[in-house]
Design a protein that fits this description.
The protein contains 15 helices and 21 strands. It has helices at 15-25, 37-44, 61-68, 92-102, 123-126, 187-195, 236-245, 268-282, 315-318, 324-338, 340-343, 363-369, 385-396, 425-437, 456-463, and strands at 52-54, 74-79, 109-116, 135-145, 157-164, 175-181, 202-208, 221-222, 228-234, 246-247, 253-258, 290-297, 300-305, 308-314, 346-352, 375-378, 399-401, 404-406, 414-418, 446-454, 468-476. The protein has a 17-stranded mixed β-sheet. Strands 8-10 form a two-stranded parallel sheet. Helix 14 (425-437) links the parallel strand 19 and strand 20. The longest helix is centred in the middle third of the chain and has 15 residues, at 268-282.
């Protein structure tokens, strides 16, 4: 049987289409040697396919790249091998050949990735006049401070690893990422960068331990476009003061990851500031009510409101250190940071746990800072009977203080439960009856059971104590 290929050969494709294909597949200037002659003709005439320079390239290829790229912006990868160790460093003559051939093109560099040994001569690359550079990525093998001025008036994105820069020369950033840097910037220097970068969108500081430096200037820093803050192993006192100065109505993610080297109460300023940042953006919404979700596991805590997330992770928790008190303090601080006006708008709360029975403990801070909660959901794939029991027990009894008994969430009227196994109807009945007779507590009139199986007798018993019983994806057996 005769077969033939109905698809045209690559040489028959329009040059514009070939150019798009090679642009998608181009991984930094490398091109297959097994392309037909027509494809090479297209490549030679497409300057956008010649915009990558790399120290690893054959020296003879560099003049061709500079010629064929015409006047387009260039992306440069400079890795001298010293980052991996002295025995991996490229020969000096190869480095000098690269510099002599490419330095004159620095006015066209748009992106620069620089990876080198700490002992390398950094000024021969970073010190060039980089007037069109927008993205700078620096990774060094050891911590140093590069004190030379940056001639980068158009810089938008900076990412540094083990390298401190002349921070006073940096402004108008879109993103700033600093990792494992013992040389700074100080919080005062960072504050000045933020004040000079009103369009900043991403701030990531990790493993950075400059000297103690608490900013004293209380002037607020307006960052209307900031949407992501990530802090990992940083000075808590320093950065909590900095966060208190930031005004950002569009923050979406606040992530704080750390090791349990401090008392839990030491972290509360950080999370109160995080709650304030999240709250400022949400309190102006036209939505009359919000749903808050709290996910608590032994290794992490997540507080989510609308599209905004406060994410807490502690490596010590992952290693088995039980720190419910730390998670509760973080939660209370964040809820306090929301502010009275925003907190009064939250009427629905979802609790998601991992089966360790600690969800009930969150009802107290919810009661303290969210006085108008009307619906509580204990749902999610991780919820077990232990989690449900802890919540039901907390809702069934008042906690006693000097001023008398205090019922958690007194305005609660709806309880949504993922059906646990085994399903304990008596705990629900006890809770509903107790709140019916309590002073100053609104009775629960609606219970929603989800995703499980319930005995018919249990259903009948529940219907005798609540006005509305709903079964969602739940079978009666």
């Amino acid at each position: 049987m005769h077969q033939h290929n109905d698809f045209p050969s690559i040489n028959q494709l329009p040059p514009e289409l070939l150019c798009m294909i090679f642009s998608e597949g181009n991984d930094g200037g490398h091109t297959s040697n097994y392309l037909p002659s027509g494809a090479f003709a297209v490549i030679d005439e497409a300057p956008q396919l010649w915009t990558w320079l790399s120290l690893s390239y054959n020296v003879n290829l560099l003049p061709l790249i500079l010629k064929n790229s015409k006047s387009l912006p260039l992306s440069v990868w400079y890795g001298d091998g010293g980052y991996e160790g002295d025995d991996q460093r490229l020969p000096p003559e190869k480095i000098m050949a690269f510099l002599s051939l490419t330095a004159a093109s620095s006015s066209r560099w748009k992106n620069l990735s620089y990876q080198a040994s700490s002992e390398s001569n950094h000024s021969q690359i970073i010190g060039l006049p980089l007037h069109t550079l927008q993205r700078l990525n620096v990774s060094l093998s050891g911590n140093i401070a590069y004190t030379g001025p940056l001639d980068t008036p158009g810089i938008k994105d900076i990412c540094v690893h083990r390298c401190s820069l002349d921070w006073s020369s940096i402004s108008r950033l879109r993103s700033l990422k600093i990792d494992q840097n013992t040389e700074g910037p100080t919080v005062e220097a960072l504050k000045n960068i933020l004040k000079a970068s009103p369009d900043l969108e991403i701030l990531r500081i990790s493993r950075s331990w400059p000297d103690l430096d608490i900013p004293v200037d209380p002037t607020p820093i307006s960052l209307p476009k900031l949407r992501h803050i990530y802090l990992y192993k940083v000075s808590i006192s320093n950065y909590s003061h900095l966060l208190n100065l930031i005004v950002t109505p569009n923050l979406r993610v606040f992530a704080f990851h750390y090791f349990n080297n401090f008392r839990p109460e030491a972290f509360t300023p950080i999370f109160e500031a995080a709650g304030r940042c999240i709250g400022v953006g949400n309190e102006n919404s036209k939505d009359p009510s919000f749903k808050l979700a709290i996910t608590s596991t032994p290794s992490a805590l997540r507080i989510k409101i609308r599209r905004c997330v406060i994410d807490v992770r502690n490596a010590a928790w992952s290693d088995g250190v039980d720190d419910l008190d730390g998670r509760l303090r973080c939660t209370s601080a964040a809820l306090k940071g929301f502010g009275d006006r925003f907190s009064s708008m939250i009427k629905k709360v979802a609790l998601v746990g991992c089966g360790n029975g600690e969800l009930g403990s969150y009802c107290r801070p919810l009661h303290m800072f969210l006085p108008r909660v009307e619906e509580l959901a204990v749902t999610g794939t991780l919820v077990t009977d232990t989690d449900a029991s802890s919540v039901l027990e907390t809702l069934s009894l008042p906690s006693y203080t000097e001023s008398g008994g205090m019922w958690a969430l007194p305005n609660l009227v709806t309880l949504r439960l993922k059906v646990p196994e085994p399903f304990k109807t008596d705990e629900i009945l006890k809770m509903v009856e107790a709140r019916k007779t309590a002073t100053g507590v609104t009775p629960i009139y609606r219970i929603i059971l989800e995703d499980g199986k319930v005995n018919r007798a249990d259903v009948e018993n529940l219907r005798t104590v609540v006005k509305c019983l709903e079964l969602v994806n739940t079978d009666i057996i």
